[in-house]
């Protein structure tokens, strides 16, 4: 292996759901008067149970004035952040956003501005956590929202709980030359292939997780594990931590039964063609959507002149 293998490629650009511009203003979460002051003149994004929100014709979030929901913060509203003196909040709506104009992160995340993408990513993840944290994990008593929606307080044992993020590694495995290892899960759309990923286990480092997951999913040993970047993936609460690694292409592939339907080495030219194609699959290969960090990783590798 040459030293270039270790330095190699980078992401071609920041992952689309990693973009964010607002100040989260943690200090104001604990001050009722401060939150009330921020609420005045603020903007509110409504999110339905499936993570959909109104998106305008020019691909921006359709904010509602906070004043339409009262003079003080709505009980279930969460503070997303502040920018240029304007506060941004999110609120779960019972309205079914199935009609035209309501879109989720997967379909609209790549079209939103840096500010809107960060706001909706945070809103989907934070509201989803609240939906599933209504009872204390220690004593079972009901919990209530505190700190402008950034914590829950147990009414039984006074325990305070904070939003959880589950780290997962996602790794682009290449041979140090012109081939990348791609695989597909049986539940994915036809011909969809992507890089390998898996959740980090308790007591495990990120690098160790990369090695374990690749070995478990396709039976291949990797080296030169290297960090690339990260992206929140609030489906429901993951953080995708991207890596690159190198493997010997002569190793036999053993897809994990029931988890990996197929795995194969793909030449750089095929990946480039798939990235440029607007017609769909190229040689039976469809790449992950542009909103994912996997797409940014593949673009970075495809452009790499090693």
From TrEMBL:
UniProt keyword annotation of NAD present: yes
EC number, UniProt record: 3.6.1.22
Top class in the EC scheme: hydrolase
Catalysis performed (reactions): a 5'-end NAD(+)-phospho-ribonucleoside in mRNA + H2O = a 5'-end phospho-adenosine-phospho-ribonucleoside in mRNA + beta-nicotinamide D-ribonucleotide + 2 H(+)
Signal peptide positions on this chain: none
Keyword terms: Hydrolase, Magnesium, Metal-binding, NAD
The protein's required cofactors: Zn(2+); Mg(2+)
GO molecular function: hydrolase activity
Every Nudix hydrolase domain range: 163-288
Superkingdom field: Bacteria
Family assignment from sequence similarity: Belongs to the Nudix hydrolase family. NudC subfamily.
Database matches in NCBIfam families: PRK00241.1 (NF001299)
Protein name: NAD(+) diphosphatase
Source organism of this protein record: Saccharopolyspora rosea
Lineage, highest ranks first: Bacteria, Bacillati, Actinomycetota, Actinomycetes, Pseudonocardiales
């Amino acid at each position: 292996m040459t030293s270039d293998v270790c330095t190699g490629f980078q992401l071609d650009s920041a992952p689309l759901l990693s973009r964010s511009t607002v100040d989260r203003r943690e200090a104001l979460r604990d001050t009722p008067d401060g939150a009330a002051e921020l609420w005045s003149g603020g903007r509110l994004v409504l999110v339905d149970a499936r993570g959909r929100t109104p998106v305008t014709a020019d691909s921006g979030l359709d904010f509602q004035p906070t004043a339409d929901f009262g003079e003080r913060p709505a009980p279930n509203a969460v503070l997303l952040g502040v920018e240029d003196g304007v506060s941004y909040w999110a609120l779960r709506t019972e309205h079914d956003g199935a009609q035209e104009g309501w879109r989720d992160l997967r379909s609209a995340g790549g079209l939103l501005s840096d500010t809107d993408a960060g706001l909706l990513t945070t809103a989907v993840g934070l509201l989803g956590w609240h939906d599933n944290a209504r009872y204390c994990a220690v004593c079972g008593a009901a919990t209530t929202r505190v700190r402008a929606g950034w914590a829950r307080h147990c009414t039984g044992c006074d325990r305070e709980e904070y939003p959880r993020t589950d780290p997962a590694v996602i790794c682009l495995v290449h041979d140090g030359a012109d081939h990348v290892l791609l695989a597909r899960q049986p539940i994915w759309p036809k011909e969809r292939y992507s890089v390998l990923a898996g959740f980090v286990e308790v007591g495990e480092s990120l690098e160790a997780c990369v090695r374990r997951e690749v070995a478990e999913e396709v039976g291949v040993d990797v080296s030169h594990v290297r960090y690339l970047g990260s992206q929140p993936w609030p489906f429901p609460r993951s953080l995708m931590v991207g890596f690159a690694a190198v493997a010997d292409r002569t190793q036999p592939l053993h897809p994990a039964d029931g988890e990996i339907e197929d795995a194969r080495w793909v030449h750089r030219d095929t990946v480039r063609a798939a990235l440029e194609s607007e017609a769909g699959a190229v040689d039976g290969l469809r790449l992950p959507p542009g909103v994912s960090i996997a797409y940014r990783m593949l673009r970075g590798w495809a452009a790499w002149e090693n």
